[in-house]
Amino acid sequence: MELETYSQIKTSVKRLLNIDLTYYKDEQMRRRLDSWLVRSGAPDWDDYFDRLRGDQHELSRFRDYLTINVSEFFRDLERWMALRGQVMPALLEQARKVHPLRPALRVWSAGCSIGAEIYSLAIMLDEMAPGSTHYLLATDLDRGVLLKARAHGPYSVDEIRNVNPQQRATYFEQTGAQYMLKDSLARRITFKEHNLLNDLYENAFDLIVCRNVIIYFTTEAKAELYKKFYQALRPGGILFLGGTEIIPRPGDIGFQNVGISFYRKGGQ
């Protein structure tokens, strides 16, 4: 794809979808766009954008494709075990100083996709601090995946492969080969459409989970997001990133690296 063509595509995508491709890695995004045009059957991008302006279904499909959604419950299980064994107990202990009987956390799943991540967090917290009323926020730019998340399924066997048998029995209802979250867990989550790059952030979070999202952004966009996440955390709060997402020189922002994928905001 020529640079002039890509520049025109970015302008059209910004106008039609309010997605700024400037923040995404050029080479990776250009490959994805080339692949999509072939799949669409359109002869060129001018023809395809003409189609988008009159076809809301195709517009939604294109939006879903651009916002890259791959997710499953407890994805990268070793890191989730570290969250449960090391990070979450410390956060809950800090919360017990405020609410001794029912410690409550503020947790944000940023780029929540189909909801697997926030529901994994809800399951973990229900097991570790039953009866507590946590604020569990899940956001994504993609309206399509938010619909599935809000409907709490259905999820495939592959998407829940890291959910143990007891958790399946407690938190899921099975219909054939698919699984739905039970209402008792699903109604604890607040879902919102949110653009990480442009929209305002809530604050005072104990834990922000943003995994395998930032890898698609440019170095400049990543740096800006890390600063925003830092500001959205309370002192002592934790940012949980994907396994390949590393903050270079985290101390320059105010973070302390406290394990693979985990960064703590300084202060208490």
User: Radius of gyration in whole Å, from Cα?
Assistant: 20 Å
Task: Give the name of the CATH superfamily of the largest domain.
Answer: Vaccinia Virus protein VP39
Shape: globular
Q: Could you give a short account of the major beta sheet?
A: 7 strands, mixed
**Average pLDDT metric:** 90
Report the sheet-strand fraction: 15-25%
Q: How many domains?
A: 2
The count of DSSP E runs of length 2 or more, i.e. the number of strands, is 9
Which structural class is indicated by helix and strand composition? alpha/beta
Distance between the termini: 50 Å
Architecture of the largest domain, according to CATH? Answer: 3-Layer(aba) Sandwich
CATH top level assignment of the largest domain: Alpha Beta
CATH topology of the largest domain: Rossmann fold
Helix-residue proportion: 40-55%
Low-confidence stretches are none
N-to-C series of helices and strands: HHHHHEHEHHEEHEEHEEE
Annotation field: number of helices: 10
Strand order of the largest sheet: 5-2-1-6-7-9-8
